[in-house]
Every structure is written in structure tokens, then in C-alpha cells.
Design a protein that fits this description.
The protein is built from 10 helices and 7 strands. It has helices at residues 13-24, 31-40, 44-54, 61-71, 75-79, 93-105, 120-128, 168-182, 184-190, 204-217; strands spanning 2-6, 28-30, 84-87, 112-117, 130-132, 139-141, 195-199. The protein binds BIS(adenosine)-5'-pentaphosphate (AP5) and magnesium ion.
Length: 219
């Protein structure tokens, strides 16, 4: 299966992506996670991406498209019959057009674009309360999705951290950038018959139940 997860910052893309990837055994490819790993290792790509990310701006299309194109050639994607779950890509119409091109060259179009709908006023609270495990990237929230021990990952005992771009001012920029550059993708996919809108305001278990119904309906 080839799936794109769409939705504003804090909509729950990462949260649902882990569940989908575990359940359906398809690689979870988060462009944000790839950039953060590159920033941490101070690679040339990470150094270029850093200033954009920390201001809440998009990294330029040329850098992102090449990176995703390479990632989609890797063994885990091939093993899953050219299957993948993209989280955070595409984010511009140019990226969506490039993805169509990459898919065409691999004889495999998208099966689903899952759009998580959450009102903008909820997003800031979700993002400011988010905590992440530096080892396994598991995502928690200080009130909605607490770890068993405060500040500690349930899965590997690592100390949770807050993302640098999760400061309130940066989050406001990210939401504005989403409205200007990413929301138009809903129109881009509207007539394709693969766009599914999911109510992302529900409890995260119920969001996943709705997603599962859609994906299972395809089997
Ligand atoms: P990226 O890492 O993709 O961030 P984002 O899109 O802003 O989305 P988030 O990761 O903040 O939110 P999410 O939807 O994953 O929510 P989560 O599940 O964590 O991108 C970061 C930056 O990288 C961009 O700003 C850009 O600079 C760059 N970048 C990345 N891709 C790019 C691209 N393609 N082109 C150009 N630049 C790119 O959930 C949020 C919180 O809410 C958590 O605490 C969670 O526990 C909680 N939560 C989740 N679901 C629920 C629920 N149902 N109810 C209550 N709480 C919930
Ligand atoms: Mg995310």
C-alpha cells in the first residue's frame, strides 16, 4: 500500500503513522524525522534544513524531493512491494507532482491520501504539550497521552525532549505555512478518488479505528 498522511502541524500524523506502519508492515517515512536526524548529525543536508525548520518555514522543494526520491528506492520500500507511508510529504503542489512522477516510474500510484482534520485552535495545545523520545521517536503529550513515568519513554526508558520548533511563535508560523502551501493539496487530490477525510479531533484510538476501516476496506 502507498499512503500519504496529510494534516496540519499537530494533527496527529506521527501518532497515527506509527500505528499504521506497525499494523500493515509498511515503512513509515517522515520527512521531518529525516531532517531532524540530519540536523542532529550535522550533515550538510541537516545544516541547510536547520534554519528553515527552526523558523517554521518549509525546506526548499529541491532538497526535499531528492531526499524522498532516494528514500523510496531503499530496500524496505521494495520489500513491501513498493509500499510506503509518507508523513509530512508532499507539502507543496510541486512535491505532489514530483511524487506522481516518481510513482509513475515505479509502476505504482498512491492508494490513499488520509487527511486528518483538526481545528487550528486545538493544534497549539497539542504541540506545546508534546514530548518525544530521542531513541525511538515515540510521541507523548503531557496531558492527552502521558508516559507511565513523567518525562520518561515507556518503551526504552530514555528521557523525553521537546522539539526546537515547538515554541508557540514558531508553531504559529508553521500553521500559516500549512494554510498557504500545504492546504491546497486537498484540492490537488480532491478529484482523484483516493482522498479520505478523517476526524482527527477524536481520541487517538478512534482516529486509528476510522483509518483502519478505510485501509481494511481496500483488502
Ligand atoms: P514535521 O516533523 O512533519 O512536523 P509537522 O507537519 O509540523 O507536524 P508535527 O510533527 O508537528 O505533528 P503531527 O501531525 O505529526 O502530530 P503528532 O502525532 O506528533 O515537519 C517539521 C518541519 O520539517 C517543517 O516545519 C519543515 O520545516 C520541515 N519539513 C518536513 N517535511 C517537509 C517537506 N515535505 N517539505 C518542506 N519542509 C519539510 O501529535 C501532536 C501531539 O498531539 C502529540 O503530543 C500527540 O501525543 C498529541 N495527539 C495526537 N493525536 C491526538 C488526539 N487524537 N487527541 C489528542 N492528542 C493527540
Ligand atoms: Mg510529526
Amino acid at each position: 500500500m502507498r499512503i500519504v498522511l496529510l494534516g496540519p502541524p499537530g494533527a496527529g500524523k506521527g501518532t497515527q503513522a506509527s500505528r499504521i506502519s506497525d499494523t500493515y508492515q509498511i515503512p513509515h517515512i517522515s520527512t521531518g524525522d529525516i531532517f531532524r536526524a540530519n540536523m542532529k548529525n550535522e550533515t550538510p543536508l541537516g545544516l541547510k534544513a536547520k534554519e528553515y525548520m527552526n523558523n517554521g518555514q518549509l525546506v526548499p522543494d529541491s532538497l526535499v524531493i531528492d531526499m524522498v526520491s532516494d528514500r523510496l528506492q531503499q530496500e524496505d520500500v521494495k520489500k513491501a512491494d513498493y509500499g510506503y507511508l509518507l508523513d509530512g510529504f508532499p507539502r507543496t503542489v510541486a512535491q505532489a507532482e514530483s511524487l506522481d512522477e516518481i510513482n509513475k516510474n515505479n509502476d505504482g500510484g498512491l492508494n490513499f491520501v488520509i487527511n486528518l482534520e483538526v481545528p487550528f485552535d486545538i493544534l497549539i495545545d497539542r504541540i506545546s504539550g508534546r514530548r518525544i523520545c530521542p531513541v525511538c521517536q515515540a510521541t507523548y503529550h503531557i496531558s492527552n497521552n502521558k508516559p507511565k513515568l513523567d518525562g520518561i519513554c515507556d518503551l526504552d526508558g530514555a528521557k523525553l525532549f521537546q522539539r526546537e520548533d515547538d515554541q508557540e511563535e514558531t508553531v504559529k508560523n508553521r500553521i500559516k505555512v500549512y494554510q498557504d502551501q500545504t492546504e491546497p493539496l486537498i484540492d490537488y487530490y480532491k478529484d482523484s478518488g483516493i482522498l479520505v477525510n478523517i476526524n482527527g479531533l477524536q481520541h487517538m484510538d478512534d482516529v486509528f479505528t476510522d483509518i483502519k476501516k478505510i485501509l481494511d476496506g481496500a483488502n
